[in-house]
Design brief:
Elements: E1 10-11, H1 13-20, H2 24-31, E2 41-43, E3 46-50, H3 51-61, H4 63-68, E4 86-87, H5 89-99, H6 107-116, E5 139-140, H7 141-148, H8 165-168, E6 186-187, H9 189-200, H10 207-216, E7 239-240, H11 241-250, E8 256-257, H12 267-274, E9 286-287, E10 291-292, H13 294-305, H14 312-321, E11 344-345, H15 346-355, H16 372-379, E12 396-397, H17 399-410, H18 417-426, E13 449-450, H19 451-458
Antiparallel strand pairs: 1-3, 2-3, 4-5, 6-7, 8-9, 10-11, 12-13
Length: 478
């Protein structure tokens, strides 16, 4: 819980994606990394983080992204000076090396950047007739700093002794026979696929699938890309042999997805015992990389569970709060085959279906009430002693309806609507699940909450005055 009056700056996945200009899914994936800062609080369904801790983590791990987030600042600590100061190419290389804690960038490398447009052409040349005279190419400080502060392709930095993620994974296929060669040999994506196919005796994943793997961290990003200024120049993304082989050896075999026959025996007991993915659901067979639409996923879920799956609008909410994975493919993503609506791989969809708990009807009655007050006091969690009207978790409630339920359940007036709006802004009450113009069905003309969301708020612990306050001690104002 954030202490009252704290000056700590806070952020969440949405704000991180906005500040550093990355997709929300990318920011969400960062929060799952072991070294990412721990959340300091939770606002509704979203974790809240210390903004400075997140910024420092990005500076160390993704410096290119970090630079983009330092809008209007001097993130690289470049020397102050007049915008029209003249700098040589050698000086620009020295400043770049100092800014990124490495050797100065070679002048020859900088000249390749000029030819590719990464670095602007010089502002001044020998014999250009301007004052003061110069005897070699020079750049205005503003031009040089625009180059130094440019968005960069981000490569995760590793400390001494730290292995790339692909090498940290278990050697699930250490017995694969791979061609010899130098660790620094450069391989294209097609060459990696050919080696993988020959080693495993079955077709490797399609290039489009491997691109997905790169996005979600299952395959390392390329070590080299066109225009990166390194030697030798490359005209397509390439991986060092060591990087590629680490990926090939760590990649698990692709299984066909589904349940049938003996796989079903005892699966329900296994699911109950493990508390993990449900293996008792009978799902259609198929390849893990088959693409499924949201409606197809709903149909499979309905057939497997014997009851209607959540509505499409509910599943969209699940995607926004992380309960359902984002689509693996979207229109215009440049991959093959092209899709005209969001789609999920069968493996992704089945992981969601098997992990989703049964939807319960919400409310309290009968035996559920027995001993619930003692349980709430013992656990210190959500209050189960409140008598709330029954209904479906996906029923939509207005703010006034929530206030009326809260008042009836607690036997005292609920917070005013204006107070609840403050609660939403500081995370004490979840933001609405539906708002006017959100494009979902049914349309709403005011902010609304699902019953399940509202009841979690209503069951909040009672708010007491802080211990040690003047009122609590019986002191007066004086």
């Amino acid at each position: 819980m954030i202490p009252e009056g704290s000056e700590q700056k806070h952020t969440n996945v949405t704000l991180i994606s906005e500040r550093y200009d990355v997709h929300r899914d990318t920011a969400y994936k960062w929060t799952g990394e072991e070294s990412f800062p721990d959340p300091v609080d939770r606002a509704g369904k979203a974790d809240v983080y210390d903004e400075d801790e997140v910024d420092e983590w990005l500076r160390k791990n993704f410096p290119g992204v970090w630079i983009k987030g330092q809008k209007g600042r001097n993130p690289l600590g470049l020397p102050a000076g007049d915008a029209r100061d003249l700098l040589t190419l050698q000086r620009i290389g020295e400043l770049e090396g100092r800014a990124f804690h490495r050797d100065a960038t070679d002048v020859r490398t900088l000249r390749t950047y000029i030819s590719k447009g990464t670095l602007a052409r010089p502002d001044r040349k020998a014999g250009d007739g301007q004052k003061p005279e110069v005897n070699e190419d020079r750049w205005f400080r503003s031009t040089a700093y625009a180059y130094l502060n440019r968005p960069r392709r981000t490569r995760r930095q590793t400390t001494v002794g730290e292995q790339p993620a692909s090498e940290q994974q278990p050697q699930a296929a250490g017995d694969l026979e791979l061609p010899g060669g130098d660790d620094q040999d450069l391989l294209t994506l097609e060459q990696i696929r050919a080696i993988d196919t020959a080693a495993r005796g079955r077709p490797a994943p399609q290039p489009a699938t491997l691109k997905i793997y790169q996005r979600d961290g299952r395959m390392p990003r390329p070590d080299r890309v066109p225009g990166d200024g390194e030697e030798p120049a490359v005209d397509e993304p390439m991986w060092y042999r060591s990087t590629a082989y680490g990926f090939i050896r760590s990649r698990p075999a692709t299984r066909r997805t589904g349940t049938s026959g003996a796989e079903q025996a005892g699966s329900e007991r296994k699911a109950q015992a493990t508390g993990g993915l449900r293996d008792d659901l009978e799902l259609p067979g198929g390849d893990e990389e088959d693409l499924l639409t949201l409606e197809q996923i709903r149909a499979i879920d309905t057939a497997a569970r014997g009851r209607p799956a959540p509505k499409a609008s509910t599943l969209q909410v699940y995607q926004s709060d992380g309960r359902m994975p984002r689509p693996d493919r979207v229109p215009g993503d440049g991959e093959e085959p092209a899709v005209d609506e969001p789609m999920w791989y069968r493996s992704t969809a089945y992981g969601f279906i098997r992990s989703r708990p049964a939807t319960r009807r919400t409310g309290t009655s009968g035996a559920e009430q027995a001993g619930s007050e003692r349980k709430a006091q013992a656990t210190g969690g959500l209050r189960d002693d409140l008598e709330l009207p029954g209904g479906d978790e996906e029923d939509l409630l207005t703010l006034e309806q929530i206030r009326a339920i809260d008042t009836a359940a607690r036997g005292r007036p609920a917070p005013k609507a204006s107070t609840l709006q403050v609660y939403q802004s500081d995370g004490r009450m979840p933001r609405p699940d539906r708002v006017p113009g959100d494009g979902e069905e049914p349309a709403v003309d005011e902010p609304m909450w699902y019953r399940s969301t509202a009841y979690r708020f209503v069951r909040r612990p009672a708010t007491g005055r802080p211990r040690g306050s003047k009122v609590a001690r019986g002191e007066s104002r004086g």
